[in-house]
Design brief:
Order of helices and strands: EHEEHEEHEHEHEEHEHEEEHEHEEE
Shape: globular
Distance between the termini: 39 Å
Number of helices: 9
Strand content: 25-35%
CATH class of the largest domain: Alpha Beta
Largest sheet: 10 strands, mixed
Structural class: alpha+beta
Number of strands: 17
Amino acid sequence: MQFCLQLAPHANIRYRDAQVKLGQAELTCLLCALSLPAETQVTTIGGVPCLTFSANALTPEALALLGTHSTRLMLFECVDGGLLRPLDWGRTAYLPDDLSEILKYKGKTSAAFTHMMMNCARAASDFALADQPLTVLDPMCGKCTTGFVALQNGMNAVCLDIDRKDLKEAADYFSNYLQFHRLKHRLAQSSRTLQKTAVPIAEYTFSDTKEHFAADDVRTLMLAEGDSGLVGDLLKKRPADLLVCDLPYGVQHAPQNGKKAESFPKLLERILPAWRRALKPGGAAAISFNTLTLRKDTLLTLLQNAGFTPLTEPPYDDFSHFVEQAVHRDFIVARNKQP
């Protein structure tokens, strides 16, 4: 059987060409996770670029996973005579898409790109088809785009950053969002001492409906203020399933250790072992970076030295794309193998 995935056009015209390449790689990752290693192709139908692939009849489980594709618009079955029959993949969003889109600021990573990285990490993990909500960690969260994308998709999120101002803005925004949408929730604030350092924590517990909240069918968002190297201790008892991080590009933001500037290699050499400890065995990480300020082979070596297993074979071998003159972005997916 032949299927066709129509992509939603991205608002950023510069990103649209890259969107087709990245969307195809993401689709292939999801199909591999479903044990459907079908060859995907870019096909123009009615002047619109679509992704096509052949497979046996798709199960509800397969439709549900494909329905999480970051830029999917509609999925069709190709039938006789060149006709397309729409397929229903049911509800795919836990919270409205506006959660990750409303908060605007300079240097913000696209929510669609973040969602794609999350899907590729999930597909590479042992938890791709898990029934229970996964937990996503962003150890350099900024204003929490990764966390908000995770929550939209029914996952839990742990977000850590050293910038108190950014975390406060994210917390204020999320509090207002919950109140505006009248979502039942509670907020617990605390502090933990990690490596002789106080780490303030705000943890939101909420649900998409009041009935689910009453039944304790909830999701959580943890916002923690501290150095990224503390995350291994922070999640020692409850490690995350996935790690998704957009490294500083060295344009709007540069890496730092406290208030001191720090080179990318030195920074990563220091914190990657902690990131690995914060991730469950069988979990996977997706880490994006600017190739103009950090070489891909350097990051691959640093990940390997920290105990990760980077995936370098198709479809995980090439996510590189142009963003702007000072940013040429790529990302690496790496597994935390079972011992």
